[in-house]
User: Which sequence fits this backbone?
């Protein structure tokens, strides 16, 4: 029977999570990409491929190439036009639109008449950091629709774990615990703490990189961090070799 490349003829084929592809499959894929020809399983007859290829991954493929888990030649074949999609926490303005889309999808799927979602529910969902990105948001919306107790989704329909995490988070993915119980989250000093802790999180605790990102000297950053430690604020661990 037809394979996926033949089925995608004159269309687009998405190779999702290409970084998880085993090396033997990578070799076969490379041949298809290079020759633009393929054959059905068990057949000796080849047919031309007329499909646009989009490859998606959440891995650093260049690092995988260096580790030997991803073929260098395939990487360069696929690395033509790069589109970097930021994590959902960095484009929170998309959350209301995505919620509306998923609400419509799951209302139809579950044959439930849900008229909409209230602003308080949207605010809670927008304050959450979404470590699982859009997949997590999609699953959350499906759960909310399935368990909805009224004709509209409200804050009480938001899963408790997301509701609690959202209420305990300030902008930048920094928790109020990290900020010292959020006692000055709305002040200039609080905003400064948010930026500094978020930069440390971004660079996995590497203080040198965080200082460069913040545009301050490493000495200034260390001084600020010493002040925060005296206040009992939890800081991302720099670990060995990350200072």
Assistant:
């Amino acid at each position: 029977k037809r394979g996926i490349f033949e089925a995608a003829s004159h269309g687009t084929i998405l190779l999702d999570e290409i970084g998880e592809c085993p090396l033997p499959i990578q070799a076969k894929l490379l041949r298809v990409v290079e020759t633009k020809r393929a054959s059905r399983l068990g057949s000796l007859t080849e047919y031309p491929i007329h499909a646009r290829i989009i490859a998606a991954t959440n891995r650093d493929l260049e690092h995988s190439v260096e580790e030997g888990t991803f073929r260098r030649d395939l990487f360069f074949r696929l690395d033509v036009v790069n589109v970097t999609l930021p994590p959902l926490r960095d484009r929170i303005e998309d959350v209301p639109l995505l919620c509306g889309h998923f609400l419509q999808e799951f209302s139809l799927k579950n044959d439930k008449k849900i008229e909409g979602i209230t602003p308080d529910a949207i605010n809670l969902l927008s304050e959450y950091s979404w470590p699982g990105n859009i997949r997590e948001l999609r699953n959350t919306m499906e759960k909310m629709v399935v368990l909805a107790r009224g004709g509209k989704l409200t804050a009480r329909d938001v899963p408790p774990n997301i509701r609690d995490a959202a209420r305990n988070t300030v902008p930048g993915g920094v928790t109020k615990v990290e900020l010292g119980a959020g006692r000055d989250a709305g002040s200039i000093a609080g905003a400064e703490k948010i930026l500094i802790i978020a930069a440390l999180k971004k660079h996995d605790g590497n203080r040198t990189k965080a200082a460069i990102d913040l545009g301050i000297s490493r000495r200034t950053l260390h001084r600020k961090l010493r002040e925060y430690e005296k206040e009992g604020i939890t800081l991302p661990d720099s670990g060995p070799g990350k200072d």
The beta strands are 11-15, 37-39, 46-48, 51-55, 116-117, 152-153, 169-170, 174-175. The radius of gyration is 24 Å. DSSP finds eleven helices and eight strands in the chain.
